[in-house]
Amino acid sequence: MAALLWLIAGIVLIVAEVVSGDLVLLMLGVAALAGAGAEALFGVTLLSAGVFAAVSIGLITAARPALKRRLHPGEQVKDNVAALVGQRATVLATVDGTGGRVRLGGQEWTARTLDETQVLEPGTSVTVMQISGATAVVWADGL
Fold first, then answer.
1. How would you class 6 by CB atoms within 10 Å of its CB: exposed for 0-12, middle for 13-18, buried for 19 or more?
2. Surface-to-core class of residue 77, CB atoms within 10 Å of its CB (0-12 exposed, 13-18 middle, 19+ buried)
3. Is the distance from CB of 95 to CB of 126 less than 8 angstroms?
């Protein structure tokens, strides 16, 4: 009887995964199926609960991150300077191919233009094209 409950719980969790899409319920559903198998084989509820706990922890910590990377390869979260590329900034002090200052993300950054012939005056809206060391390499919006 307990094996049937584990089986039903596993199937319900796997079906519920279709709605969530985060792979957690899938991992718990598979762990519940493992618990159902342990219950059916050994008939010891405490053992099947232990199997469920071990399998669910193993799947969530090991298999889920690998599956997420494989299923959604372009969804890595950008952090640090990679998150700044593509952001808008405002010129604070004239920016040219050799230097200048911009306000980027609420902070003041040294900057230079991507095109060394550009000269950008204060107040100009720019896009960060790359970060080179501690310098934002920018391009004027609308050009």
1. buried
2. exposed
3. yes
pLDDT tens for each residue of 53-107: 999 999 999 999 888 888 877 666 666 777 889 999 999 999 999 999 999 988 9
Closest CA relative to residue 119, chosen from 88, 89, 142, 98 = 98
Residue matched to tokens 């952090």? 79
Q: What is the C-alpha separation between 134 and 143, in angstroms, rounded?
A: 24
pTM for this predicted structure? 0.54
Closest CA to 121 of 101, 142, 87, 91: 91
Residue 33 has a CB neighbour count (10 Å cut-off) of: 19
Q: Are 85 and 131 in contact (CB under 8 A)?
A: yes
**β-strands 135-140, 107-113 pairing:** parallel
